[in-house]
Write a structure and sequence with these properties.
Blueprint lengths: L3 E11 L3 H10 L6 E5 L1 E4 L2 E4 L10 E8 L4 H12 L4 E10 L6
Antiparallel strand pairs: 1-5, 1-6, 2-5, 3-4
Helix pairs in contact: 1-2
Amino acid sequence: MQTHKAKRVAIIIEQVMQSRLTDAMEKAGVTGWTVLPVLGGSGDSGTWSREGQVSRGTGMVQVLCVIKPERLDGLLDAAFAVVERHIGIVTVSDCEVLRAERF
């Protein structure tokens, strides 16, 4: 089966910033993404856990998308405009997809 090169972008951001990020992604031409809850982690601010959190403002989510390589720079510019002033991590990796027309 033939595969096609793509980019997988994963962005971890505060949950309250999710809609701002996905709006920016749409404007950058991203047509699909998946949002996952982040249960806990550790970073510059120390260890944290979603357990016991009562507010949306203290949780984190991971927004995943797979895009064509030529759309990467526009997406990164849009994502960084949201992430740069907030807690967040952006990672990019190479991947391959079966149905390139969907990305």
